[in-house]
Amino acid sequence: MKKLTIAIDGPAGAGKSTIAKKVAEALNYVYLDTGAMYRAVTLMFLQSKKTFSPELVTKLAEEAKISFQREPGLNRVFLNGEEVTEAIRSLDVTHEVSAVSAVKGVREAMVKAQRELGKDGGVVLDGRDIGTVVFPLADVKIFLTASVEERARRRFLELKAKGMAVRQEDLAKDIALRDKLDSEREIAPLKCAENAHYLDSSQMDIPTVVKTILKLCKEA
Ligand code: CDP
Description:
The chain is an alpha/beta fold.
């Protein structure tokens, strides 16, 4: 069977990474979390303790060596040889990532790396611009979304399970702000690609979404 390229885009907390991982497992494909790449560059910037400038973050993005190691139930992320799986999920990184990922040079470096990693197909990528920019000719394109309230609720449960003290209202505000920044930026804004399947998962559980996507893959 042909090795497909599957693009799953959508806003924060829509469940992309959970769904993309399960789809990749079901098909025995590689899973590529492109958000983790932007997060890793953001972490590198925060660790540098330097003042933000497009030139600085571009340079960091070009230098960053980002790799993934798949383990059952866990996608480990490495930055310049060090594991950053947890560190890239911190609230500090989450607050800065939209600013870093809006920089042209950062996007160019990441898109180049993503195209290289996905060039042979048999891959599920999740992000904001996969179906619009990175792989506009992807075999299956999904735009996965849900209401802000539902996404904040999911993120709240996820962080609570990790023992992080957060308020759901604050998460809803963060999510709404990140949606706005990601959708209104000049380069590669978050939007539904022309021929993407639009899935609102507010009322759908995980297995239903996975089943829906696998059916679309079969048809492709
Ligand atoms: O998991 P969550 O929805 O919180 O976000 P993520 O997928 O880890 O992505 C974090 C941030 O990286 C997003 O808010 C975007 O600003 C940026 N991003 C992007 O610009 N392009 C991508 N392909 C993926 C992420």
